[in-house]
Amino acid sequence: MQVPNPYNIEAEQQILGALLMRDEIFHDIAGDVEADDFYDRQHQTVFRTIAQLVDTGKRVNAAIVHDFAKSGDKGTSVDPDYIEVLMEGVADLRDTIHYAKQVRDLARRRRWIAAAVDGIQAIGRLDPLTEAQNAIDEADVRILNSSKVDVSHVRMFGEWAQLATSRAIAAIDSPSVATSGLKWGLNAVDQVAGPLMPGQLVIKGGRPGSGKSALAGQAAEFFGSQAPGFIMSLEMEGEDWAIRAMSAHSDLPAWRIANARINEDEAGRLDELARRMRRLPVWIDHSPRMDIEKIRARAIRYKHKFGIRWMIVDHLHIIEPSFKRQERADITAKASEELKKMAKELQIGVVALAQMNKEVRSRDDGRPRSGDLMYYSSIEPHADTIIFTHRPEIAHLERKPDMTDPDSKDAVAWRDKMTLIEGRAEIINAKRRHGKAYQTQACEFVGETMHFRDLAAKELPLSDAYAEMKRF
């Protein structure tokens, strides 16, 4: 029986040549291909060597790869001239992810064919009087394992019920991230959104200036005190996240830290803060121009290397298209779908920030609703929870009257209302798959240090504040 053995040497060469030229590409394909997926033994050695160098933080180039691998990998050495050939043959670095998926797919086909052939041969060798079912079952299992299909997620309905009950009971005596999820660090968010659970996708929206990035930074820091995680920062620099965190902890305005307007005493406080924050297992990746495939590869890589339990994507609407000429609505739909799949596959909680459309500005109170999310219909089906940050003063500032006469009726009413709502904020729940939707909790927003905090018990609840505002 003639059996096909599918492979693509040129695709393997393109991957390795690209990695030798730019080792940062390794993070983009780490989740798609591994050394054993390569058909050529020499290619397996080169890829495994590059992976070891990247994991240990060493540089990757032709000379280093040759020196590192010349002792041989499973009896296979690497010809230094061939390494140069790999680099010279690269056509387009942007095609590396495509080639990685192709090599992985061909490897899966080879494994499946080999398992199927073994099964056929085992059945053919059976004694004619022997029951064939056992051999057939073994062949089925061999084929299933060859495809690396994870059946650990398959249980009977009653088993899932027992598992959920066991976790709930375990949480009574010893709460943990695995059983009770990640707290947000702000009671208002915990009440509205619930804890961030493994496999969950939370979409967080808010109009510009409402503090959605500020809340994400606070949450990241508090998440990090409970479990490792990372921020995929597509908009802000990594330093910006750190400045906001230090501002909140030091009570120094963020603009002073960013512009180096501090004295020696303040510098000492910030230095001590930075030292303490280095112990926090939170990684910030601000790589530019990331599509959803690259983000997924990063998440898989960090899950494997750091054991991450959560990730934050800032933000959903600037994820790059995977293909040319994709419509933005299609990009957003694909990205939100993949983020949800990623959350389930890696068993991590995912929070994605999202932009709002212009409709929110047309309402007097500026209070966001579900439909205000940009490309809402593309996002909503995949989200487990949707929350918004809302600061009433933002909408009120946009309706500031002519203040030429500060004693006019309109000017006085505007100032009185601003005094009442200044610093107030809301966390609004637009969807919650595992809890009550359409909830609102009040909190405060401290503008100078750009962070939220829970309201003190003695302060006026926001619902009562709105009743007071109606007088104006």
From TrEMBL:
GO annotation, cellular component aspect: cytosol; primosome complex
Pfam families found in the cross-reference section: DnaB, DnaB_C
Molecular-function GO term, any one: ATP binding
The protein's Enzyme Commission number: 5.6.2.3
Xref: SUPFAM superfamilies: N-terminal domain of DnaB helicase (SSF48024), P-loop containing nucleoside triphosphate hydrolases (SSF52540)
Signal sequence segment: none
TM regions (residue ranges): none
UniProt xrefs under InterPro entries: DNA_heli_DnaB-like_N_sf, DNA_helicase_DnaB-like_C, DNA_helicase_DnaB-like_N, DNA_helicase_N/primase_C, P-loop_NTPase
Protein name: DNA 5'-3' helicase
